[in-house]
């Protein structure tokens, strides 16, 4: 019996060795889709293409130097539900990889049974007891299982990059929401100051009207100016409240349980270095995810092509069967089997060819999506580079015009008190001064937004200052 089992094992191993020698992989060699990357940004000094791979960045928002923002970012990682969803998707991809790898190993099973029965040929009822074990292993001759594992690994890498992309996007959204909230606070403070000034103007015109120096129209114009400023003041308060609600939801908290102290001060806009990092394609998680999906699609071609080859499985069964447990382990009660099995679809109506064509089309789609992701990334960087530069210039002009507008308002107010100009001139000067102040705050917010987006576009941006 042992001699027969040994011979059977030898024949099975010989079949396996012959199959492995004749084995050939069915997955086409993977090559990253070619991209015609320019040697430099149009709006900056340096750009060099690099290999797409996920590089997790540190606390990039620290360049804004705002401790409240730093604290909110730390809370974001803990509470945001979208980030939790992305992490759950990553865990599912990790489990899928483990399941695909399990197919490379043999499967083992054991069984035990007992039964009692009687037939006409037996004088009495008979009890049968059996113990058995089985093993099977699909020989990956054509690389089907290996291709599935490669595809699962690539999808896991893409899922990890997706997780990082969601985190980066949420961090940038939190920063921009925070900047907008601080801008709304500053606008509210500016309007509050304007309201106080307009109230003094109303009192002044009423006093002048009572002594016959000003007209009723002057009083009406002063009151109209005051009411418009109050309406704008209410609007900025509404905007600030809604932005605070948005921050609460980003942090995974009900708006009723979240309050942020009013500061009415915007962070400073960080300087953008003249030399940008050369690792744009390395650092962006969306690009890394797109490239990994191309690799996964390429592996799926191998899976589809392997369907044209037979599936070879080695299986073995052994056990004991007898009337009593005491006699089970004796040689006469032994049974076993060992041998390979092969299965191949002879005719499928073109289903396998369609599967290969579909996999190839999916790979082409993934490659096109990768190229489009790279192009979109380049556009985003270029757009925000030019925004950073032009908004700085715009802010300079607004600061200069603000000084001129304040000077013009003082002169016009004195002229009105002297009776040399009408109150319409005062209203125009007040409107201009307030409009410029609000435009300056809005430009500061847009400069922060452009810097924030550029940091996001570069997946962490330029070198960060050391921690305090």
UniProtKB/TrEMBL annotation:
Membrane topology reported for the UniProt record: Lipid-anchor
GO molecular function per UniProt: efflux transmembrane transporter activity
A Gene Ontology term for the protein's cellular component: plasma membrane
Keyword Transmembrane: yes
Keywords: Lipoprotein, Membrane, Palmitate, Transmembrane, Transmembrane beta strand
Keyword Membrane: yes
Subcellular location per the Swiss-Prot or TrEMBL entry: Cell membrane
Origin: domain of life: Bacteria
Main subcellular localisation: membrane
Xref: PANTHER family: BLR4455 PROTEIN, OUTER MEMBRANE CATION EFFLUX PROTEIN
Family from the record: Belongs to the outer membrane factor (OMF) (TC 1.B.17) family.
Name of the protein described by the UniProt record: Efflux transporter outer membrane subunit
């Amino acid at each position: 019996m042992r001699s027969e089992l040994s011979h059977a094992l030898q024949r099975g191993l010989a079949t396996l060795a012959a199959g492995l020698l004749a084995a050939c992989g069915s997955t086409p060699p993977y090559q990253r889709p070619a991209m015609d990357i320019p040697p430099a940004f149009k709006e900056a000094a340096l750009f060099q293409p690099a290999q797409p791979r996920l590089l997790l960045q540190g606390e990039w928002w620290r360049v804004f130097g705002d401790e409240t923002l730093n604290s909110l970012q730390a809370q974001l990682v803990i509470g945001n539900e979208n980030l939790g969803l992305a992490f759950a998707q990553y865990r599912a991809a990790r489990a899928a990889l483990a399941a695909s790898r399990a197919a490379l190993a043999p499967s083992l099973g054991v069984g035990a049974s007992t039964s009692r029965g009687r037939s006409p040929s037996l004088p009495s009822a008979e009890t049968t007891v059996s113990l058995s074990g089985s093993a099977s292993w699909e020989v990956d001759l054509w690389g089907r299982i290996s291709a599935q594992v490669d595809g699962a690994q690539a999808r896991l890498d893409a899922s990890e990059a997706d997780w990082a992309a969601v985190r980066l996007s949420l961090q940038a959204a939190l920063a921009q929401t925070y900047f907008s909230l601080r801008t709304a606070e500053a606008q509210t403070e500016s309007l509050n100051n304007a309201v106080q000034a307009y109230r003094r103007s109303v009192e002044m015109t009423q006093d002048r009207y009572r002594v016959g120096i000003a007209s009723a129209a002057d009083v009406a114009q002063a009151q109209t100016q005051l009411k418009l400023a109050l309406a704008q003041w209410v609007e900025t308060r509404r905007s600030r409240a809604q932005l605070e609600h948005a921050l609460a939801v980003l942090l995974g908290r009900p708006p009723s349980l979240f309050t942020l102290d009013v500061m009415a001060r915007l962070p400073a806009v960080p300087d953008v270095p003249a030399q940008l990092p050369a690792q744009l394609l390395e650092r962006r998680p969306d690009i890394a995810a797109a490239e990994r999906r191309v690799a996964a699609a390429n592996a799926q071609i191998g899976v589809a092509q392997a369907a044209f080859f037979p599936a070879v499985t080695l299986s073995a069964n052994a056990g004991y069967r007898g009337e009593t447990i005491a006699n089970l382990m004796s040689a006469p009660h032994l049974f076993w089997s060992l041998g390979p099995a092969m299965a191949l679809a002879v005719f499928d109506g073109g289903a396998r060819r369609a599967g290969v064509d579909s996999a190839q089309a999916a790979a082409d789609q993934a490659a096109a999506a990768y190229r489009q992701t790279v192009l979109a990334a380049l556009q985003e960087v270029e757009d925000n580079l030019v925004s950073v530069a032009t908004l700085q210039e715009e802010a300079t002009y607004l600061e200069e015009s603000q000084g001129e507008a304040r000077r013009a308002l003082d002169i016009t107010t004195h002229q009105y008190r002297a009776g040399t100009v009408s109150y319409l001139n005062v209203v125009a000067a007040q409107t201009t001064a307030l409009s410029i102040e609000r435009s300056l705050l809005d430009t500061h917010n847009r400069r922060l937004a452009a810097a924030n987006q550029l940091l996001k576009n570069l997946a962490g941006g330029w070198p960060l200052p050391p921690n305090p």
